[in-house]
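Sanity check

After download, print the first record. It should look like this:
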Amino acid sequence: MIAHLEGTLVEAMPGRIVVDVGGVGYDVAVPLSTYDRLPKTGEPCRLLTHLHHRDDQMVLYGFATEAERELFRMLIGVSNVGPRLALAALSGLSVEEFKEAIATGNVALIKSIQGVGARTAERIIVELKERVGTLPAIQALARTAGAKEPDAVRDAVSALLTLGYAYAAAHKAVRRILEEADDELETEEIITRALRHV
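Expected structure tokens:
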């Protein structure tokens, strides 16, 4: 297993680079997120790597950060998602954007990646949701809700997210409870009633 490469960048183009390590040139596939962070040709370069074995060849993938490599490895663990599609995912969205899309169940955003259809996007969300966790979703809620939503709504949705529910489903359930309620409800009561609808 090759964990990282440290050498001189001798060739670089979007999606593929060559790093010279002690006189040996390593051909490395990279996402655009990593390509954008590369030094100039001829300068020192360090990459975290993942060596992928196939029946007919071995391909070395390189990443600028551990977060990129971790997401790449999670993606290739999803049914019918190979390294090429995982690389496209990292090229289309940042790691945080991708994790946030998984945590919030944002099929449309994941589907916007080249080569990813609706079924694949849904599969990625289902298989990676628990591994990604709910923190990105809670951060997204804090950014998008702001002052537009009452505190009780934000608190109730955040609580449902920590219980593992998707943002869209949690928000819809909370809004439904508030629309049906005759009186103003406390956060705890909203959560209790919303659990019947998510």
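If your output differs, re-run the checksum step. Summary of this record's structure: The domain at 4-63 is CATH 2.40.50.140 (OB fold (Dihydrolipoamide Acetyltransferase, E2P)).
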